[in-house]
Automatic annotation (TrEMBL):
Superkingdom to which the source organism belongs: Bacteria
Keywords from the named record: ATP-binding, Nucleotide-binding, Transport
Transport is among the record's keywords: yes
Residue stretches making up the ABC transporter domain: 44-262
InterPro entries assigned: AAA+_ATPase, ABC_transporter-like_ATP-bd, ABC_transpr_TagH-like, Bact_Polysacc_Export_ATP-bd, P-loop_NTPase
One GO molecular-function entry: ATP binding
Full protein name: ABC transporter ATP-binding protein
Family membership noted in the UniProt record: Belongs to the ABC transporter superfamily.
Pfam families for this protein: ABC_tran
Upper taxonomic lineage: Bacteria, Bacillati, Actinomycetota, Actinomycetes, Streptosporangiales
Length: 265
């Protein structure tokens, strides 16, 4: 190392393993425009341009600040950190949903983000959501038919609920169905953001087993969860991030123990 504090944090590759995700000196910044100049719609913006006024005040939130690591085939990586440390931002960046300010994310294959707000339609029945969700993941109608029963069984909803609109589901039921849909297909890179948080202990055990299977077929799995138990059950490796920087990257027990000691959680 040169000792230059602005030098990018380098990624080191293990040549004996297949890299699936490379995050290289990644910076993500959100820009939030202040409210003092009125709402930011097109009319007010045009008015400002006509009157030669400046843009409303803008605040930058540096959510990820120079993060680097490599995920290899078969890795199940837990991402931990306190509220606002940048976990969800990192997953969205890996999914390609946020442009890097600097640095880059390279994935070998298609990333799929399964989040608490994964796009299921509240007014449609569970049944319709399964069909639409599977089609959206690229399955053919024939494949959807083959997978349908397995998804319903895995979600394990109470009798009859699959025919009800999803707005009648509890948050736990919704997250079970979301997970069941996502897990019905193997993914190159599967990103799970708190989607299992509302499941009960039995469902979490079932999910842990499923994630293990997916790890076998998938490239890599990432899991953001506040319950360290889920991370311990499901992950072989953990990234601890704080204020958008990497505090520790290592095997699950070592990192979770260090995190618990540092934060008292
Ligand atoms: N859409 C957004 N616009 C502006 N700032 C944002 C946006 N989303 C997140 N942030 C900010 O970016 C930082 C990281 O947020 P992020 O949601 O990634 O954290 P997190 O670790 O997932 O938090 P939590 O554990 O509370 O879910 C925080 O300071 C947050 O306020």
């Amino acid at each position: 190392m040169s000792g230059d504090s602005t030098a990018p944090s380098a990624v080191t590759l293990d040549p004996s393993r297949e890299p699936i995700v490379v995050v290289d000196d990644l910076y993500i910044t959100y820009r939030v425009y202040g409210g003092s100049a009125g709402k930011g719609n097109a009319v007010t913006a045009l008015g400002r341009v006509v009157r030669g006024k400046k843009r409303p005040s803008m605040k930058e939130v540096r959510a990820i600040q120079g993060l680097s690591f490599v995920a290899y085939r078969g890795d199940a990586i837990g991402v931990i950190g306190t509220n606002g440390s940048g976990k969800s931002t990192l997953l969205k960046a890996i999914a390609g949903l946020l442009p890097p300010e600097r640095g880059g994310v390279y994935t070998n294959g298609q990333p799929s983000l399964l989040g608490v707000n994964a796009a299921l339609m509240n007014d449609l029945t569970g049944e319709r959501n399964i069909v639409l969700g599977c089609l959206a993941m690229g399955m053919t109608p024939e494949q959807v038919k083959q997978k349908y029963d397995e998804i319903v069984k895995f979600a394990g909803l109470k009798e009859g609920f699959i025919q009800l609109p999803m707005r009648a589901y509890s948050s736990g039921m919704g997250s079970r169905l979301r997970f069941a849909i996502a897990a019905s297909k193997s993914h190159d890179v599967l990103l799970i953001d708190e989607a299992l948080a509302t499941g009960d202990a039995k469902f979490r055990r079932k999910s842990a087993k499923k994630i293990d299977e997916l790890r076998g077929e998938a490239g890599a799995v990432f899991l953001v969860a506040h319950q360290l138990d889920s991370i311990k059950e499901m992950c072989n490796r953990v990234l601890w991030i704080d204020e958008g920087t990497l505090v520790m990257d290592g095997d699950t027990d070592t990192v979770v123990d260090a995190y618990t000691e540092a934060t008292g959680k």
